[in-house]
Design a protein that fits this description.
It is built from 8 helices and no strands. With about 180 residues, the chain is mainly alpha-helical.
């Protein structure tokens, strides 16, 4: 089970085309199961932190390769230099908080490292915010699952709680999409 949890978190954060995996709810449920004694909470914390941080690092590396090919070799026609310039300016101003906060938004958490690389965010800066974001994301959701999973009502209605989490995590993106 640890290997499956690691794989899901790593793939969701590390593979650009897999943003629909259930990272938030999976971390919450894993925390709730750790509260029941089915997982070691410290081992889970370290393992899933490594999965999240290394997944984003892979995603950033892939984005860096795409950027080099798009800018240097001009092989990728749909990526325009003007878009890369604007992305670079955005990540100069808001890169750190974007990398951290994106962890808590489904789909965006998968795209942010790739786009940060396209925007030429310096790797050292990305690494710092990646580590902080992974620690906050994994730690807070495992802790929430651990604390709330010990409450009998939550434990008895875990499916409804997880569905509620999914709906709440998608609402900001839905409102933004509707507004735009």
């Amino acid at each position: 089970m640890y290997l499956i949890l690691f794989a899901v978190i790593f793939i969701e954060t590390g593979v650009v085309v897999m943003p629909f995996l259930p990272g938030d709810s999976l971390l919450f449920v894993a925390g709730a199961l750790a509260a029941k004694g089915l997982f070691d909470p410290w081992y889970l914390l370290v393992l899933l932190f490594i999965a999240a941080a290394s997944g984003d690092a892979l995603n950033f590396a892939v984005g860096s390769v795409v950027r080099r090919r798009a800018v240097d070799a001009s092989r990728i026609k749909f990526i325009k230099p003007e878009h890369l310039r604007r992305t670079h300016e955005f990540f100069d101003r808001h890169g750190g908080k974007t990398v951290i906060l994106a962890r808590f938004v489904p789909i965006v958490r998968t795209l942010a490292p790739f786009v940060a690389a396209l925007g030429a965010m310096p790797p050292r800066i990305f690494f710092l915010y990646n580590v902080v974001g992974a620690a906050l994301w994994v730690g807070s959701l495992l802790l929430a699952g651990y604390v709330f999973g010990a409450i009998p009502w939550v434990n008895n209605n875990l499916t409804a709680v997880v569905l509620g989490m999914v709906v709440l995590s998608v609402l900001p993106a839905a409102f933004s999409f509707r507004k735009n």
